[in-house]
Amino acid sequence: MTQTSDTTSYKDIKQTVLQRIRSGEWQPDALLPNEQELAVEFSCTRTTVNRALRELADEGFLERRRKAGTRVLSAPQRQARFTIPLVRDEIEAAGGTYRYALVSQETQTAPDWLTARLALRVDQRVMHVRCMHFSTNTPFQFEDRWIVIDSVPQVEQADFSSIGPNDWLVQTVPFTNVELTFLASRADATLAGFLDVSEGEPVFTAERITWLQGQPVTFAKMYFAAGYRMSTEF
Amino acid sequence: MTQTSDTTSYKDIKQTVLQRIRSGEWQPDALLPNEQELAVEFSCTRTTVNRALRELADEGFLERRRKAGTRVLSAPQRQARFTIPLVRDEIEAAGGTYRYALVSQETQTAPDWLTARLALRVDQRVMHVRCMHFSTNTPFQFEDRWIVIDSVPQVEQADFSSIGPNDWLVQTVPFTNVELTFLASRADATLAGFLDVSEGEPVFTAERITWLQGQPVTFAKMYFAAGYRMSTEF
DNA sequence: CAGTGGTCTAGACCACATG
DNA sequence: ATGTGGTCTAGACCACTGT
User: Fold this and answer.
1) Are B207 and B172 found together in one domain?
2) What is the pLDDT of residues B182-227, one digit of tens each?
3) Is residue B166 located within the same domain as residue B201?
4) Which of A68, A114, A175, A195 is most deeply packed, by most CB within 10 A?
5) What is the tens place of the pLDDT at every residue in A35-76?
6) Same domain? A98 vs A213
7) Chain A partners within 8 Å of B203 (Cβ)
8) What is the DSSP string of A53-94?
9) How far is A168 from chain B (nearest CA, A)?
């Protein structure tokens, strides 16, 4: 029904399985028939059943173990997938006009807390960049970023007056591991000025540590203007 | 090398492709060889190459289009996958002892803002539950939840004095769609009391709306104690 | 139109975990 | 020891889309 043809596709199987879970036909913790039996029921090959069940397991609905079989997860381990947008995209998607402004850029010895946080060697040098992102000239995000010079030597020649450090890094360091943290912090006087809020106001904050093959590359704190919400559906 | 045998697996291919992206051999926006060519290079079938590339696309590294081929994404759309833990699991995983306490439970007519938020009919009735989650007797989370009675009629007989509403819902409503939002809010006097912080302090907050086949089931605001961080790696 | 990925089949061998 | 999922092969047809 879903497609032009009448073959049973892995998508059909996924839908049917979800339907049976929703309807209670397959209760939490219930053991599903094995792949061979389902293949017979759906008149397809085991390969097709395998793909359907594998994806459902990947999405957090099922648990699969060799020999033990496939079960409905009792506490559906649903996973939220946040696609972390680039600031510019996020602003433009909301209909705003993006504007970037550099606040400060200087090389310095890494402060102690950063050395500890990124497991740097003592006295390792870093580039410290602070900048603002505006949506139609309204403050949107204040970014406070450190870049480890030993990991990205080219950064010493970089000029962040017209391109944001994140855009620059994305072009320069092709692939990375990321540790992302969300928290609520309190606007100090400086931050309050940048974001145009009162001192002491709550500020939604994201911290992002980036690694390139085990080497710490950058630590960024991103402070969002009042009213910001990070949303997802799943 | 990775396995006992010497066959090229889709995992090997994924690793190799990532390596080539990291090393810059395949620059952002570069067009990869097509599946048939890669199958020859890796001495495997196109099916195996397909799985490797399909997963990498799914993970946000590649973009695939029929006829146009497979490209390295210029701005790697990495997706953070938050596994939203049950409060009890989260506390116990951190080594704490979980304690639950009901604060209030009553049925009422949905307030206007909730009617709007969940697209309810006017004057629809809801169960309003407020409760606390403690980690070794330290406040961990204050939960403020509304449950739509028409969507879950059994809730009128539910007693949340010993089981949390979330645990109850997970057992009762097997499968749902979820809209999850993170934000920073400000502790009012009531909240400050529950979480043992000063009034006005920033509070990390999660809002969760749950739907069952298009029907709104529940809206929950979860306020976390000071210092809470929501982290993920990817 | 033609090239590329999307998917399915039929069959096989194997890794792993449980009884 | 054995049943279950994990993966690969070899081949096929098709859907989409850029030229």
Assistant:
1) yes
2) 999 999 999 999 999 999 999 999 999 999 888 999 999 999 999 9
3) yes
4) A195
5) 999 999 999 999 999 999 999 999 989 999 999 999 998 876
6) yes
7) 184, 202
8) HHHHHHTTSEEEETTTEEEE-SS---EEEEE---HHHHHHHT
9) 11
Domain boundary at B37, B72, B107, which?
A: B72
Total domains in chain B come to 2
CB B52 within 8 A of CB B14: yes
Q: Of A37, A72, A107, which one is at a domain's C-terminal end?
A: A72
Please state whether strand C lies within 7 Å of residue B4 at its CB atom: yes
Does B185 contact A205 at a Cβ distance shorter than 8 Å? Answer: no
Cβ(A121)–Cβ(A148) below 8 Å: no
B4-42 per-position pLDDT tens digit: 345 679 999 999 999 999 888 998 899 999 999 999 999
Same domain, B119 and B178: yes
Q: How far is A126 from chain B, CA to nearest CA, in Å? A: 22
* D19 C1' to B23 CA distance, Å: 33
What CATH number does residue B55 fall under? 1.10.10.10
Give the model's confidence band at A212: pLDDT under 50 very low, under 70 low, under 90 confident, else very high.
confident
| Residue ranges with strand state E in A79-176 | 79-83, 98-109, 125-135, 138-148
The boundaries of the domain holding residue B32 are 10-72
Task: Say if B207 falls within a structural domain.
Answer: yes
Amino acid B7: pLDDT: 63
In a domain, B1, yes or no: no
- pLDDT at position A5 over 70: no
Same domain, A120 and A66: no
Residue B48 CB in 7 A reach of strand C: no
Using the Cβ of A234 and the Cβ atoms of chain B, whether some distance falls under 8 Å is answered with: yes
Task: Find, in chain A, the residue whose alpha carbon is nearest to that of B51.
Answer: A51
Residues of B in contact with A201 (CB under 8 A): 186, 202
Q: Please check whether residues A52 and A98 belong to one and the same domain.
A: no
Say if residue B178 is in the same domain as residue B93: yes
* pLDDT at site A85: 76
Q: Which residue of A has its CA nearest to B212?
A: A22
Helix H, strand E, coil C: the string for A185-227 is EECCHHHHHHHCCCCCCEEEEEEEEEEECCEEEEEEEEEECCC
Q: Tally C-beta pairs within 8 A across A and B.
A: 140
pLDDT in tens, A165-206: 998 998 888 777 889 999 999 999 999 999 999 999 999 999
